[in-house]
Specification:
Strand order of the largest sheet of chain A: 4-14-13-12-11-10-6-5
CATH topology of chain A: TIM Barrel
Strand content of chain A: 15-25%
GO biological process, one term (chains A, B): tRNA queuosine(34) biosynthetic process
Catalytic activity (chains A, B): 7-aminomethyl-7-carbaguanine + guanosine(34) in tRNA = 7-aminomethyl-7-carbaguanosine(34) in tRNA + guanine
Oligomer: homodimer
Shape of chain A: globular
Pfam families (chains A, B): TGT
Keywords (chains A, B): Glycosyltransferase, Metal-binding, Queuosine biosynthesis, Transferase, tRNA processing, Zinc
Radius of gyration of chain A: 20 Å
Number of helices of chain A: 15
Helix content of chain A: 40-55%
CATH class of chain A: Alpha Beta
Family (chains A, B): Belongs to the queuine tRNA-ribosyltransferase family.
Number of domains of chain A: 1
Low-confidence stretches of chain A: none
């Protein structure tokens, strides 16, 4: 297809909320969408069939982790990440920046990039903007992310402003390193930073959206701030992004964060929360959170969620799920992960329907009563 | 059906090897068969769908573990183990004796049974012959096993002879506690012991087969002896069991042990070996053992076993399986377990076919070259 054709189509809006489609090399995504995180070439405890069955449309891979193990060049020799892990639908890869910047004490940031030590064997590595794009090219993801600095919560205005300069300069270098339709077919998204300062968020949005990316992400949220602060920054930043491109709120995955994000015009989300919570026995349901290890479920023969059609809810009781969790059985991780991901995928599907039917505010208010903040 | 009708039918023999069918309350099993072990109401890392898909006909549950957690009475209130774990095919439960006798230092054997401390919380419990039958009645398994003492490898003639007396007395008490067609519909198998003394094996077989069980097991093998010693005892004991009842070799699951067992007239096997090996990265294939963590598989795009039709081999490469194993990903346990169990189920299916076609010796010789001892 023509590299200049519109990849994103907004099909319906309801207030700021929008429903659309995004064309990627491995197929069309219906937005809003939640992306399960498959750090190391697998969404933890699940196989591709589990993901297809729950209706996952796109998953996320972590560049930092895959670069270290098994290595992006090894994956390229296998024909890319899709073939390696047997997932035929779209994949988004992050830039690795977030993981590297989280390696406190093990990394040095310069204008040119970031030097870091592997958490596996201590070996030294360097990520430049060009390097993370080369890695993501090797992985062959459908959507690449630019290298950015996600400033820690509590960073002051001065640090955040300086960091912003780097993030913008790196975004330009990433774009220069790869042009869709020439270098290859992958999409590339820019990332707006700016910490918790509205002037810096405005500046970042202006600078990043001046670069022609196929989509724009909001980074640096859900890093320790209150829900109120997150929402405040989201409400400020989302309108600064072009309406004709997809918007991606990074690292956010609590049910109400999705509902709020969509209400503010966000199209895409990812987070380890649903799978990590699942492995810790915390499950999202249409009636609120369930902590499956609680004694009250010991002899509860009902499914986790009476309104859920996932494999877990169709087949197993809370009593059985509690037994598996308490016994630390491996099946517990998988059945819980299937449910939590299905729940979020179903939530965004229902959000999409509500947008088409012009009743998003009702949808929003309903979920506010289930997951009050 | 009539409690006195024949549950086991021998359909074909080839030398001592035999192919047959065994009727149980949850369906007919085609023998010879391997039974995956589902200790705590799940075959580790797998769900019932995985087991159906690989052609598992019957699985095993562990009475000791289920009694302690979640409790046999709790399972009875759920409608039994089948309903609790959503497995509709046959289940065999052991008596719990083997696990209890393995609790060295934590148990006291008397003529009446065995007192032991829970490995979970140290609480005191007592298993009598009647008690383990009551527990297995609560679990609602298709085949119950009598309480026996599995004597440790190296036990002398005197200890083994005394132990034998208890095992026979307990077998009689188990049979007296439950009569198929009157008390319920479950089958009960007796267990021949006798350590590594042929005179005691003969005595045990005579005493146990004098009690009318629906099947007979050979216990106390694969406890530390050499392959030669195991085979020696097997060759001695199997002919002492009635040909019109199914024969079950307990705790045996290496490929050649199955091939040898079937050659000696054994119909049923169980073992944790295939699933435990799978979790340790050791995989059985039609070309021999594969240790998936070896560097030679790093970039090997071929399936584990070119002749295998399991879900793992149909979808994933050795390179991917090695990556999952090295990265300690949860999916590794499941994909490896699916393969190893499928391999053994396929092996006994091929053995059955070879028996029908009168070429078991060729089959036996082929596998001897693949898994030399």
């Amino acid at each position: 297809m023509n590299a200049h054709a519109s990849l994103f189509t907004c099909q319906a809006t309801d207030g700021s909320a929008r429903a659309g489609t995004l064309i990627t090399p491995h197929g069309v995504i219906q937005t809003p969408i939640f992306m399960p995180v498959g750090t190391l070439g697998t969404v933890k405890s699940l196989d591709p069939h589990d993901l297809y069955a729950m209706g996952a449309q796109i998953i996320l891979g972590n560049t930092y982790h895959l670069y270290l193990r098994p290595g992006d060049e090894m994956i390229a020799r296998r024909g890319g990440l899709h073939k390696f892990m047997r997932w035929d639908k779209p994949i988004l890869t992050d830039s690795g920046g977030f993981q590297v910047f989280s390696l406190a004490g093990l990394r040095t940031i310069t204008d040119d990039g970031v030097e870091f030590s592997s958490h596996i064997d201590g070996s030294k590595h360097f990520f430049s903007p060009e390097k993370v794009i080369a890695i993501q090219t090797n992985l062959g993801s459908d959507i690449m992310m630019v290298l950015d600095e996600c400033v820690p919560y509590g960073a002051d205005h001065d640090y955040t402003a300086k960091s912003l300069k780097k993030t913008t300069a790196w975004a330009k270098r990433c774009r220069a390193a790869y042009t869709r339709g020439e270098t290859g077919n992958q999409l590339m998204f820019g990332i707006v930073q700016g910490g918790f300062f509205k002037d810096l968020r405005t500046q970042s949005a202006r600078e990043i959206t001046a670069i022609p990316f196929e989509g724009y992400a909001i980074g640096g949220l859900s890093v320790g701030e209150s829900k109120r602060e997150m929402l405040d920054m989201l409400e400020h930043t989302t309108p600064l992004l072009p309406s004709e491109k997809p918007r991606y709120l990074m690292g956010v995955g609590a049910p109400m964060d999705l509902v709020n994000g969509i209400r503010n015009g966000v199209d895409m989300f990812d987070c380890v929360l649903p799978t990590r919570n699942a492995r810790n026995g915390t499950l999202f349901t249409s009636l609120g959170k369930v902590n499956i290890k609680r004694a009250q479920y010991r002899e509860d023969d009902s499914p986790l969620d009476p309104h859920c059609s996932c494999y877990t809810c169709r087949n197993f009781s809370k009593a059985y799920l509690r037994h598996l969790y308490v016994s630390r059985e491996l099946l517990s991780y998988r059945l819980n992960s299937i449910h939590n991901l299905h729940f979020l995928l179903d939530l965004v599907k229902k959000a999409r329907k509500a947008i088409f039917e012009g009743r998003y505010e009702m949808f929003y208010k309903h979920w506010q009563t289930i997951y009050p903040e």
